[in-house]
Amino acid sequence: MVKMDKKFIGATGILLLMLVGAASVPAVAQNAPEIVLPKIQIGEEMAQGPQNMSVMLQLLMLLTVLSLSPYILVMATSFIRITIVLSFIRTALGTQQVPPTQVLMGLALFMTLYVMMPVGQDINKNALQPYFAGKISQQQFFQKVVPPIRDFMLKQTRTKDLKLFLKMAKISDVQTKKDVPIYVLLPAFVVSEVTTAFQIGFVLYLPFLIIDMVVASVLMSMGMFMLSPMSISLPFKLLLFVMIDGWDLVVDGLVKSFRM
After folding, report:
1. Nearest residue to 254 via CA among 78, 95, 121
2. Virtual CA dihedral for 20, 26, 27, 30, nearest 10 degrees?
3. What angle do CA 180, 185, 187 make, to 5 degrees?
4. Residues 6+ apart with CB under 8 A from 44
5. How far apart are CA 219 and CA 85, in angstroms?
6. CA-CA distance, 247 to 86, in Å (whole number)?
7. 20 to 30 Å CA-CA from 131: which of 91, 103, 177, 227?
8. What torsion, rounded to 10 degrees, do the Cα atoms 240, 242, 248, 253 define?
């Protein structure tokens, strides 16, 4: 009986709290400011005229852009190079999952925001603020958003990669880099970023490779064939990385590797 009484009392208390909370919601809602939300209605009515069809197409394009926004963030910014180089550092150190992948991705994201800040400020000054103030139309807004991002990608893209994709696209009437179509520039930019990241990763890998080779040679000369060289070289690599302030050097070199 005591157990049943405790359960009954607990259930009654929870029910009273729910009733009190439900009764207090209207009182709070009366004092809260009115929130006006847009009305979105989805039905099977036929579109009446081109205006309704234009709204539907704009909504479809907006949803498409939102779904592709993570890929745009990754593939049209400095995120590619930074992520690959940080992954090379972790592999060269031999620390397995330290730092964790979430930490590396977070560091790469904030470094990307830092590198892309001049581009964002340009877009905000020349596109966003005039558009919010009603000084330019929507078409002019999109025309002003693309050039800063395009200029950033052109500065990082190698001429060799541009020529490769122009050749595959059979485009020969391009006079300057600014005349390169965006669908040619994007893959050329991605290939250039991957190539540059691998070059930086190779340079960063060499010191740690030398430490592994020295430790392996010493162990073989001492006859310790059953001892893993990686387990012995790891503390020395960490010590070297800490003594030279490795993270500062890597971040500084990565940021300066971008042509702004």
Report:
1. 78
2. 170
3. 150
4. none
5. 30
6. 10
7. 177
8. 10
